[in-house]
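Lab manual, section 2.4: Encoding a predicted structure.

Procedure: take the sequence of the chain (142 residues), apply the prediction step described in section 2.3, and record the output as structure tokens. A sample record is shown.
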Amino acid sequence: MNWKKDNTESDDAVTSVVGEILLMALVIILVSLFAASAFDLLPGDRQSAVDVSMEKETDTVTFWHKGGDWIDGSELSASLTEADGTKHVLETESLQDCFGEEKRVFDLGGSYTVKLPPAAAGTVSIRLTSADSVLYAWEGKL
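Recorded output:
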């Protein structure tokens, strides 16, 4: 019996291509796993941090921006809640910068003035809020 090997058929080229494909698949899987876990480490959105003071006059309340982040004026909202639970959304009178010019943002030195409802009296709660947080809260007698 003659056990001669046929040299015309060789599997060397096929095994190297299959090996390269397997290595590429492994690299792609490892890179996608690393990317997915790296995206979980990114910090999320943070809330606005603003230092605000309030000044009450006869028929208006003015909020003063004393420091921190600027807030888009369209996101600002002021509300008054009476002792019996009645809530009033306060109407915006003006939003000004530190020079007294009308602006669209609540920024350092700026003021946000709202009108008080005429029927509000007694102990009330006044809140200045943005889209994502309460910026200022006050409770007392008007």
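Check your result against the sample. The two ends are 114 Å apart (CA to CA).
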